[in-house]
Amino acid sequence: xxxxxxxxxxxxxxLPVVALALLxxxxxxxxxxxxxxxxxxxxxxxxxxxxxxxxxxxxxxxKGATGAATIPALAGNPKLAxxxxxxxxxxxxxxxxxxxxxxxxxxxxxxxxxYVRTHFGNxxxxxVTPQDVAALRGPAPTPEK
Length: 145
Ligand code: HEC
Known about the structure:
The chain is mainly alpha-helical. The chain contains seven helices and no strands. The protein has helices at residues 2-11, 15-21, 28-37, 46-58, 84-92, 106-117, 130-137. Helix 4 packs across helix 6, helix 5 (84-92) packs across helix 7 and helix 6 (106-117) packs across helix 7 (130-137). The longest helix has 13 residues, at 46-58. The structure holds heme C. Heme C binds at residues 6, 36-37, 53-54, 56-58, 69, 71-72, 74, 77, 79, 86, 89-90, 94-98, 100, 112, 116.
């Protein structure tokens, strides 16, 4: 049921997402991401970004958690094999995960996705570049950094 709902969400045209991305950083919706994931980060180091932005939910060992919400493990996660998937989820959010595309720039997304794909028992060594992120971000304006 949850899964079907999320697939339906993912299938929606990108227009509303683009519109939301245009909201100023301090708008209520964008603050959802900042409030759950901290005030953001200026680091471009994947490990640091993971610790500052992702770890609060996915845990230091990336094994996720269950409780009020289920946070999937990123450790040993075969869904990271195709870099496009984690890039898309980080940019646009998914279910209980906030979209972080307004918080992180292309370099930061590439760096943290590259980090999780090569740590926590994941060995996907093909590089993730800011260009890969920009391509998935589409025509929406990049956040001010
Ligand atoms: C507020 C909590 C939260 C934060 C912060 C967060 N996530 Fe998530 N993440 C989730 C939840 C919840 C899901 C499950 C979404 C769903 O499928 O309903 C998820 C799903 C994912 C997935 C998909 C996993 C799968 O098996 O489908 C990836 C990849 C991911 N997160 C990476 C990241 C990265 C990288 C960061 C940091 C840049 C991050 N997340 C920050 C809560 C969070």
